[in-house]
Amino acid sequence: MAADFWSSSHYKRWMVDRASINQARAVDILYVDNHDPEYFDFLNIYFANAIMKLGRRLSLRQRVIATAIIFFKRFYLKNSYCETDPFLVIAACCYLAAKAEECPVSIKQVALESKAHFSQEIHNVKSTNFDHTRIAEMEFYLVDDLESDLTIYHPYRTLTALCKPDPSSSSSSNTNTATTNNTNPTLPDTEPEEGEAIEYPSPSSGTHSLNPSLNHPIDEGPRYWGTGQGQLELPDGGFQRAWFIINDTYRSNICLIYPPHLIAVAAICLTVVFHPPSRSEIVPHLPSSSSTAKVGQPPDTILTFLASLNVSFPLVATIIQEIVSLWTLWDRYKEDATDTSSAASSASPGGSAGKMSSMSPTKPHQQQLQRLARGSTATLSTLSTSTPTPTAGGGDDPACTTDNNDSSSSHSPLVEEPAILFTPSILSNVLVKMREGRLAIQQATSSNSGSSSSNNNTDGGSNNPGSGSTTPGMGKAANKMLERAQAAG
Amino acid sequence: MAAMDDWSCDIMALYRAKRETSKRSVKSNYSIQGFISSGTYGRVYKAQSLDEPAKLYAIKKFKPDKEGDVPTYTGISQSAIREMALNREIDHENVVALKEVILEDKSIHMVFDYAEHDFLQLIHHYSQTLRTQIPTATLKSLIYQLLNGVLYLHSCHILHRDLKPANILITSGGIVKIGDLGLARLVYEPLQSLHTGDKVVVTIWYRAPELLMGSKHYNKAIDCWAVGCVLAELASLRPIFKGEEAKVEGKKTTGGLPFQRDQVLKIFEVLGTPDENDWSNLVYMSEYQNMKRLDYYPNRLHEWCQTRLRSQLAYDLLKLLFVYNPDKRLTAREALHHKWFSEDPKPTRNAFHGLHSQLPQRRITQDDAPSMIPQPQNASHQPGHNVIAGGAAAQLSKPGSSASFASFASLSGGGGHYAANQGTGGHATHAHGPVRKKARLG
Question: Segment Disordered: which positions (chain B) (predicted)?
Fold first, then answer.
């Protein structure tokens, strides 16, 4: 957490655009059926879930897990799934993230838990050898590819800066510190992380971490953007709902593309729309069925508060749309019932509490999503009109303000329910096929010419539908993309 | 499953091969000029950029872990992770800049901007060779820049946790550079208390009273205490609180840490016994009862300053940095605004401005370990007889590790060298050994 986000490695070197992300998959896409990029969206969910579950086995906090997921995603901006072992990378990411977030776990434990977790039937990962020296070796390469940028900004931080934790659960955490003998009474001995308890209800976390702590003012960091002062008090459960929505975003590329504080604001907006108690507070002020943009009565506190934030609401609207798209996509993903992990007891897509409890997982779902998406957009357009920021002009239709790139390449969220359901076993088979395909090509090329691994001409000619997207040295290409993305701002 | 294992190995082999082709190596970018220092973490070398020969770097090479004699991967140490992660985020004139990290041969190489001098070397130069006090203008400039760097770190929510003369470098242009973030930590919303991660922080002579009293919680004020100690040391040319570290019985520190009685006494002898009315949390601290058993001492700081700091304002600044209660202690920002800095002589950007003699260059030697130095080189790099080599260093069995070279090296084992060299008097070896003990998780 350097001085602020704008001077961080996260902002300066790792904000990527969708084109770079697609480019990073250019080799992988040669080896999936029909060269269908949708597989990668499901793999995103699959891998994120896998990291979350392994993280829980290791008792990692949500922020550590989120860091591990970002490490994983950044690694695969420079590498291909089919040329690496993603499960070994996952183990290394968890190991490294725990150290980077200053709550280390032993490498042997990581090895043990990885082995135990991924040998479960749903993953069908029998090939990966989770020997600790292999994890350590992988960590080494991982750090190299991460360019030693190990400090990650997460939306959780903005959420806790902007919103008071749920009032119902904040009382007891204060007493923790009042009784401890400390020179600095503001620094509690342990800080339960806000809202994470429900993400994975476990007996050990118990009531303690159910109470979002109010105690993180050891260092009340500056708000590195915007002008907002004070804190928003969301109705009961609203804070946790927003927290869960943020958790959900790690299952997509949202966390690579957008600045974390905007993701947090998007999550708060969605909470306001989705969460019945929160929603009821703003409903009187919403432009009903988008007939009026101006509201007669003074806007209520939540809206005023959001409007006071000096952020780009069109961008927030785009993020909201992408979150809704993710949820739609996620409906087609099911973790198998054979998953015996205790952590997943609450809902089958592990930790999808934000999604599962904010909406009924039944059929009307689609319409509800559409309606709510519209609702949030409407909310935002109110905000936009009442915000003095110049960027807020075109808030009525966020789709218009979206990057062409974004809307065209992202999956359309509101298509009819497709037939195929994606499960971990299907996806791990996809991975196996990808790797076998890649290895076969590799062996063919190396036996033909004995040249280096970057020679992809053979498979490019036979398999590549996109003609010419195969470039040698994908890692370098991704690097260039990153540089380009930086240059573009 | 044998076939599957092969397949997995093939994937790794493929990946390794791909990495080999694109990797950046130390030798193709730098020429190693000599060995600077070593510590438990590894070794530091002076290097020259091959692209821009005018540019000098200090390459900190972390030791690869070994199983038997074979280097192997055992996971990157917490301290290396910290140092990399923090250095990648920060950028300030008064903090040593990390140029790049090269991962090669199972080792991490951190390439830092080179700095010719450090506070410890300066202190020795004045105490041994020149045998005079450091001029006030120089001293003030050094402290001002030090505070400026500390303020930057603190505003980035970073606690250094190991400020001491050996870790504070100075370039030949007189710019102070805080080094060695191996023990530093972000304190913004930590997931674990600082105490959980590292049981003991800060080399004992610079350790703040709240740490010595066993407080589990501490904050930026511990760095400000250390700055006070450094200021006093620059003024008197020897550590102000030179206590003897109490050792832990056995090797594991699981059974609690000992009360640092001698260190506490050294502080009390100058600053007096703390007043519970000024420091109300004191009574809750785990070493409070131990402290109560000590004799009562009056505050003698003013007297201490009489002969050493010629300015009343300097005394006032020191007094405020040595406030027992960490919540009342001067912050880095407040310290920078202290009136002493607006009193003549004013601090200068080049701390050496106006000095007649130059400090000797940092000595480099040939490596005595499996070396990164390509061919034998003569290490007679320094003009004339280096002060460091005389006096204190003569007591050392390993001259290569003498004081002025501890700067990059004090990450975790450097304290030993430092202590030996600090001891210009009869106490040369009393603090030898693990001056800093750290119990880390993982």
Answer: 421-442
Cα–Cα distance measured from residue B166 to residue B390, given in angstroms and rounded to the nearest whole number: 18
Task: Summarize pLDDT for A56-107 with one digit per residue, the tens.
Answer: 999 999 999 999 999 999 999 999 998 889 999 999 999 999 999 999 999 9
Average pLDDT, chain A: 68
Candidates B21, B67, B83, B88: best to mutate against A (most CBs of A within 10 A) is B88
Q: Position B65: which residue type? A: D
Whether the CB-CB separation of A162 and A310 falls below 8 Å is answered with no
Residue of A nearest to B279 (CA): A183
pTM for this entry = 0.77
Interchain pair A454, B78: CB under 8 A: no
User: Rounded to an integer, what distance in angstroms lies between the CA atom of residue A255 and that of residue A263?
Assistant: 8
Instruction: Return residues 158-187 of B near A (CB < 8 Å).
Output: 185-187
Question: Is residue B162 among the annotated active site residues?
Answer: yes
Q: Mean pLDDT lowest for which of A18-22, A422-426, A466-470?
A: A466-470
Tokens of B72: 């192997």
- Pair (B220, B308) in one structural domain: yes
* Domain membership of residue B103 as a residue range: 25-67+75-113
Indicate if B82 and B194 belong to the same structural domain.
Answer: no
Q: Enter the ipTM.
A: 0.81
Alpha carbon separation from B302 to A103, A148, A364, B255, B322 (Å, rounded): 43, 47, 79, 39, 12
B50 domain residue, yes or no = yes
Q: Could you read off the pLDDT of B331-363 as tens digits, one per residue?
A: 999 999 999 999 999 999 999 998 888 888 988
Using the 3D structure, point to which of B284, B316, B341 is the last residue of a domain: B341
